[in-house]
Write a structure and sequence with these properties.
Order of helices and strands: EHEEEHEEHEHEHEEHH
Number of helices: 7
Strand order of the largest sheet: 5-8-7-6-9
Structural class: alpha/beta
Function: Catalyzes the reversible phosphorolytic breakdown of the N-glycosidic bond in the beta-(deoxy)ribonucleoside molecules, with the formation of the corresponding free purine bases and pentose-1-phosphate.
CATH topology: Rossmann fold
Number of domains: 1
Catalytic activity: a purine D-ribonucleoside + phosphate = a purine nucleobase + alpha-D-ribose 1-phosphate; uridine + phosphate = alpha-D-ribose 1-phosphate + uracil; a purine 2'-deoxy-D-ribonucleoside + phosphate = a purine nucleobase + 2-deoxy-alpha-D-ribose 1-phosphate
Strand content: 25-35%
EC number: 2.4.2.1
CATH superfamily: Nucleoside phosphorylase domain
InterPro entries: DeoD-type, Nucleoside_phosphorylase_CS, Nucleoside_phosphorylase_d, Nucleoside_phosphorylase_sf
GO cellular component, one term: cytosol
Largest sheet: 5 strands, mixed, barrel
């Protein structure tokens, strides 16, 4: 009997143990069509496109996750616990909040600070430190070094809030050394930790929040090739 959920219906198509997770399903389609061979589509429910193919002879999947912790957490939970995915690599965009970061810079999210309440479900008797899989992080840094690609490694903010009522909030995160802001890594990392699998968030700086610099939507979908290629090599 084929495995499926209300949100992912592969109809017998394979989902690989390593998966790339862009927020935008059209970016998943772009990656599949540009980089993968022998591609089979495994999901189209709610337009959340997913594909499996080969990259340099290795099986790899790619699927959109939507925006925010609830969406990422739903899809990653099902991929891990229903479909047996072992390595989950988010590839996304982020807004820089440090002066030394510039547009198109790549960030590896070693840690994920958050304002989300997602972790409350675990009823932990303290504050949980949300971190990436060192196995994937170490491998990704080695790949970037071999490519001569400069990357930033550190703590990011995974926020539930895009339009914040407090205009000073990001400045306070910046003062704690947070590199950039995105919306999905915390839920992904907690799901992975709970299940004992690997997760890493690789980000490209799409805008600088304090300098009011930004890339276009078209560039976010197709031009972040350095980030995509590092992630593909992790398979």
């Amino acid at each position: 009997m084929h495995k499926e959920t209300p949100h992912i219906k592969p109809n017998g198509a394979e989902i690989a143990e390593t998966i790339l997770l862009p927020g935008d399903p059209l970016r998943a389609k772009f990656i599949a069509e540009t980089y993968l061979e022998d591609v089979v589509q495994f999901n189209e429910v709610r337009g959340m496109l997913g594909y499996t193919g080969t990259f340099k002879g290795r099986r790899i999947s790619v699927m959109g996750t939507g925006m925010g912790t609830p969406s990422m957490s739903l899809y990653s939970w099902e991929l891990i616990n229903i479909f047996g995915v072992k390595n989950l690599i988010r590839i996304g965009s982020a807004g820089a909040i440090q002066d030394h970061l510039n547009l198109y810079d790549i960030v590896f999210a070693m840690g994920s600070s958050t304002d989300s309440n997602y972790g409350s479900q675990y009823n932990l008797p303290g504050q949980y430190s949300i971190t990436a899989s060192f196995e994937l992080l170490e491998k990704a840094k080695k790949i970037a070094d071999e490519k001569g690609q400069r990357v930033h490694v550190g703590n990011v903010l995974s926020s539930d809030i895009f339009y914040h009522a407090d205009p000073t909030a990001l400045q306070r995160w910046s003062e704690m050394g947070i590199l950039c802001a995105e919306m999905e890594s915390a839920g992904l990392y907690m799901n992975a930790a709970r299940a004992g699998v690997n997760a890493l968030c690789i980000l490209t700086i799409s805008d600088h929040i304090f300098r009011h610099e930004q890339t276009t939507q078209e560039e976010r979908q197709t031009a972040f090739t350095n980030m995509m290629e590092i992630a593909l090599e992790l398979a």
